[in-house]
Amino acid sequence: MAPNLAVIISPPANPMCNKKICGLYPLERIIVTLSRNGVKEIYLDLSDSELAFYRRKIKPAIIKKLEAAVHETLPEKTPEAYLEIQSNLFVQMHYFTDFNTYFTGTKYSYHAAARNDVFAIETLDDIKKAKKLLRETIIVNTSGFIARTINKRISLPISTALTRTRIHPNYLTVFNMIIGIMSAVFILFDSYWYTVLGGLFFQLASVFDGVDGEVAKYTLKVSKIGGWLDTISDNGTLLMFLSAASYLYFIHNTGVMPLVVIGLLFLGLGVMLLVMVSFLRKYTSSGSLVTYDKEFIQKLPESDPVVFLVQKLKYITKKEFFSIVFFLVSLTGMIYLLIPIIAVVLDISALLLLYLSIKYNDPEKLEQIK
Hints:
By secondary structure, this protein is α/β, with parallel strands linked by helices. It has 15 helices and six strands. The longest helix is centred in the middle third of the chain and has 28 residues.
């Protein structure tokens, strides 16, 4: 864990101080990263030119958003424990999660460790290397074959370009929601080409779903509100798309059975969301459903046959998988034929998750699996 106090010092020369790495200056990235990792006091021991640059370009953009206090002069007495870091050092959030790996020193003074991924930004090649490392970190932490090998190849270049605009990730989430809503509207026209267009827009929404999160990680704007907004966007889009497809399923079939199938579909979806959101609210500070998988499902014992089954089935309930299936089926012009299959998958998944949430609801058991 990082100490509560950090001192940022200027290197002998810093020609890259005015160059951005995915939307943030190196010094700006350090300050925000320190603040987000629990450092309470940040002291700047900068050269006159770099201090002027901080006041002109960095301070107005971040000072009101920081949890840490930033001081432009050193403390009157030497602190008991502190981290000393150069203003042009490249850092990532996970460096502080695994603090002892990336920083060395005594319990009183810490410095950056000698590692290939801990380096000073001194040339344009260093900036390229930093951007590559940020991109690789996102890919490594992305689960799912389709997301890693297809979606990220499209979304990451878009995200990198958007970081230059300082656009807030939440605006991108709303834009992606609009794309998802349009996909449902196209489906309702119930004609071949509109159905294909609806499937295509739903697939585009799945690809662009990564953009807001990537921009948030690049620019260190990840937030609980953003997580909840992303969850609302994803599930709102899915709900509208399934509603449109269910309507078509109803009008293309007769009798009571379509109503039963549609009812079971939305019952299963509702139970699944209720179980996941309840866990997030009770045990985490996140609003992202991805956190439910990481903090609960992935930590359950695989010796439990139900856990093993959920681990095997969970991929087909992920947006990256079913969105491309929706698109491929939309090419037939009869996407509503998926409704019975979706109903079965969602109901089985809901029953399994409900069972696990009851079985591992005991706080002591939950603490043991963590």
